[in-house]
Amino acid sequence: QVQLVQSGGGSVQAGGSLTLSCGISGGMPVNSMAWFRQATGKEREGVAALDVWDSSAYAESVKGRFTISKDNGKITLYLHMNNLQSEDTAMYYCATSSLPWSGPELTSSRYNNWGQGTQVTVSS
Q1: Rounded distance, CA 118 to CA 70, Å?
Q2: How far is residue 65's CA from residue 51's CA, in Å, rounded to a whole number?
C-alpha cells in the first residue's frame, strides 16, 4: 500500500511562491504522480502530472508558473508554485497511480493513492 505524506503550503500574498512536498512510501509500483487541487465549492482539478518516463502535463491555468518535479533519492514529489494568484487558493492533494501507464494524466479517476491535503491561500 502506497502512503503519501504532504508538507508545505500556507498563506502567501499574490505574486509570491510556495513549494509543496509529498513523501511517497510503500511497495506498489508508481506509474504516474500528480497534484490536484480543490477550491471551496468547486470540483477537484488536475494541476500537474509526471509519469515514470518523466513526461509532464500541466493545467492551462498554471503553465509557466508551476513546476512538478521529483527526487528519486528521497522518493518525494514536489510542486513549485510561482507568481501565485488568488484563484490558486485551494486545498492541494498529491496522488499516485499504480494503474497501467497511460502518460502524465490529469484525471483524478486514474489515481488510486492520495495524500492528506494541504491548504494554499493566496491573498491579493
Answers
A1: 18
A2: 20
CB 96 within 8 A of CB 2: yes
Three cell numbers, residue 97: 497511480
What single string gives the DSSP state of each residue in 18-49? EEEEEEEESSS---EEEEEEE-TTS--EEEEE
The answer to whether the CB of 63 falls within 8 A of the CB of 36 is no
Residues 6+ apart with CB under 8 A from 23: 4, 5, 6, 7, 74, 75, 76
Task: Kindly give the confidence (pLDDT) of every residue in the chain, 124 residues in length, as a single tens digit, with 9 standing for 90 and above.
Answer: 889 999 999 999 999 999 999 999 986 788 899 999 999 999 999 999 999 889 999 999 999 999 999 997 769 999 999 999 999 999 999 999 988 888 889 999 999 999 999 999 999 9
Task: Check: CB of residue 43 under 8 Å from CB of residue 122.
Answer: no
* Cα–Cα distance measured from residue 59 to residue 66, given in angstroms and rounded to the nearest whole number: 9
